[in-house]
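Can you please make up a protein's amino acid sequence together with its fold in token form to help me picture the idea?
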Amino acid sequence: MRITIETTSIREIEVLLKLLSQLDLEGIKIIEQPDLPASGLPVSRGDKSIDPGELFGIWKENPRDIDEIRSKSWARNWS
């Protein structure tokens, strides 16, 4: 099982790590991630040769409305 904790405060991370180390649980392993660039996540340019126009009208034979989409999505069994 994996738990991910995201925070913007270094102080909160320090407190959490101190708490976890004091608990002395054998099943907890702290995995450090490499530092991200100052600008955040790496960004790559998209493929400009793809024509999005081909996607227009893909639902014209079977129109959907937002209520239908929500009812089908929310009724799914997620387990």
Observations:
- Residues 11 and 64 are 48 Å apart (CA to CA).
- The first helix runs from residue 10 to 23.
- The helical segments are 10-23, 66-74.
- The chain has a mean pLDDT of 79.
